[in-house]
Amino acid sequence: MPFQPVLHAEWIKIRTLRSLVGTLCAVLPATVACSALSAAGSGGSDPLFSAFAGVSLGQIAAVTFGATAVSSEFRGAALRLTLSAVPDRRRWFAAKATAIALPVLAVGLVTGLVTLVLGRFLLGTAGPSWPEGLRAALGCGAYLTLMALFAAGLTAVLRSGTATLGILIPLLLIVSFVIGDVFGSVADVLPGRAGQVVFQETWDGPLGPWSGLAVTALWAGAALLAGAWSIRRRDA
Amino acid sequence: MTSIEVHDLTKEYGGRRAVDHLTFAVRPGLVTGFLGPNGAGKSTTLRLLLGLDHATSGTATIGGRPYSELRAPLRRVGALLDADAAHGSRTGRDHLRVLAASNRIPAGRIDELLAETGLAPVARRRVRTYSLGMRQRLGIAAALLGDPEVVLLDEPSNGLDPEGIVWIRGLLRRLAAEGRTVLVSSHLMNETATFADHLIVLGRGRLLADTPVRDFIHARVRPAARVRTTDDERLAELLARHGQDAARDADGVWTVRHARVEDLGRLLADAAVPVLELTQEEATLEEAYLDLTAAEAEFTAQHHQEA
């Protein structure tokens, strides 16, 4: 089967569910509003991180989007119908991941640019420089995409969006900080912490902005492979 | 045309055997009824045919190839498995658009099928608002979207109103008349008898019968005739003399087992017995089926005792 019609079908699935479109659109206001609040009341030492602080909230929307797009296939007999239309399961899952990644990347890049412009305006001379700001804006698109894919892969393994979000949201919002205080270097390679180095002007861990994103990409890739394996092996 | 071939198919779920060395073929141009009680393995067999579940052993092919090897499978095979396959928040029309896009089926087919299944007025409503019957019609529309040569329907009359049941009967007959291969599972015997030409009967995952409907009924249930007369004494004497197995109920109706009205009518006329009523009682598919499963249960019970 060719890939393009499968991708087209997956794209229609996303467009025609209001909850998915709503979650995707929420990435922008959640990130920008939270960043603006942080920048306005900034006491942070890192101007780049102050400007992009809202990504930690925006990522929840991106993760929810990735998880819901996959978990809708596990409602009722949806997956059976999907796989009877597209029996090549690897190809189907690749199309699903692509249909999740592309819109998140687009929304993530726009969100990064808006956040940067607003951050520079609010922080004035204390704000981030353009080169570092643009790096963070690109990183915002990449990071949110990778986190959505990580959630998508995990949902395919667990066959439940609720379970995935139940693991990821506490992990992203709470656990990485708690663990970070206790065992510093372990937390540095968690998917959230590693990828968020791209939003810091200075960093002291072993990972830099791009190597941090690469670690998040490894997590996302591993989750997608595990998801693909699970979909291929199990009865639908 | 395209046949379905199932050969030595077995499926075990954690030690429990749902399908047990099943072999049968489904031919084009006929409606084949797929019968069996709940849990007999009908739905499992359909899922194995569609490559949704992985067989423990054996093969299931459509037109000589496993389903997973078909290119644009919806254009070859249409299936209705469950009425809850559509997402409740999507509209019926969007549900069909997704399926059409995945197999490059022209968008024009969507409106054709919405009209044919009577869903056109609700096509832009969310599936959540549909009745079970409407969901079932949406599932049938999805199955027929690619104009497939092979149609597999699992309990299609579930939730349909009487009008819908008449509609599906006509639809199945038409699909077979067009030369398609039609396999329809059901646990409703008399309903199946109204549309099926051929039967495949399963019991506990094994093949119990693979035969034309007519032969299935005639082989298992002998006919009976009903007679009413004003002269019970002479009728009783006449039937006894001809060795007929007959019994009279409280309402004065005689049931003559294994008799045909053609023979009995001649006999009564020759003996000049006054007749008020003479009717043939046709055996039903249900009776034949119950006879078969009773024999099967007895066999299994004996088997267990011996073991």
Key terms for this structure?
heterodimer; A: 236 residues; mainly alpha; 0% strand; B: 307 residues; alpha/beta; Rossmann fold; Alpha-Beta Plaits; 2 domains; four-stranded antiparallel beta sheet; 36% helix
Describe the 3D structure.
The complex is a heterodimer of chains A (236) and B (307). Chain A has helices at residues 3-15, 18-40, 47-51, 55-71, 78-85, 89-123, 130-158, 161-182, 184-188, 191-195, 209-233. Chain A has 236 residues and is an all-alpha fold. The mean pLDDT of chain A is 92. In chain B, the strands form three sheets. Chain B has a six-stranded mixed beta sheet, with helices on both faces. The radius of gyration of chain B is 24 Å and the shape is elongated. Chain B has helices at residues 42-49, 92-102, 108-116, 132-144, 162-177, 189-193, 213-220, 232-241, 261-270, 285-306; strands at residues 4-13, 16-26, 31-35, 57-62, 77-80, 150-154, 181-186, 198-203, 206-212, 224-229, 245-248, 254-257, 275-281. Chain B is built from ten helices and 13 strands. In chain B, helix 7 packs across helix 10 (285-306). Chain B is α/β, with parallel strands linked by helices. The chains are: A mainly alpha (236), B alpha/beta (307). At the A-B interface, helix 1 and helix 5 of A face helix 2 of B.
